[in-house]
């Protein structure tokens, strides 16, 4: 296993998070490179009562913060002798993860999994199910 794609849903994920710990364990045992990805949905229109300039500035600040968090996580992994890169990508989650997994020729996709009931699954989009149905490489779900 040469390349692992670790998806980050929340940019406040730390080196001690279960998904990061499991990815580090796999990467160190297989001498793999870790690609960290956080997908940001395409921006929406500002609310009618918010100035579009202020809205764009706030979105830019948020993206800058998320980028810095990803870079810090990547640096922490590098300090542990793991080859790691981080990406902040805009787009739909399923399509972006599929595209990046193919582009980077990853051998494994690692995803954090929250436990929810059937009602939640019925109401929310099926990111996990969509990836399982379409991904060409193995997917590892890590309980969060």
Q: What does the model show?
A:
- The chain is α/β, with parallel strands linked by helices and 144 residues long.
- The chain has one domain (3-143): HUPs (Rossmann fold, 3-Layer(aba) Sandwich), CATH 3.40.50.620.
- Helices cover 46% and strands 22% of the residues.
- It has five helices and five strands.
- The chain has helices spanning 18-30, 52-79, 93-103, 118-123, 127-134; strands at residues 3-7, 33-40, 84-90, 108-113, 139-143.
- Strands 3-2-1-4-5 form a five-stranded parallel beta sheet, with helices on both faces.
- β1, α1 (18-30) and β2 (33-40) form a beta-alpha-beta unit.
- α3 runs parallel beside α5 (127-134).
Q: Which strand-content bin applies to the residues?
A: 15-25%
Structural class, by secondary structure, is alpha/beta
What is the H/E order?
EHEHEHEHHE
Amount of helix? 40-55%
Sheet bearing the most strands, described? 5 strands, parallel
Work out the radius of gyration.
16 Å
Number of domains: 1
Give the overall shape, derived from the CA principal axes: globular
Instruction: Give the spatial strand order of the biggest sheet.
Output: 3-2-1-4-5
The pLDDT mean sits at 84
- Output the CATH homologous superfamily: HUPs
Low-confidence stretches: none
CATH class: Alpha Beta
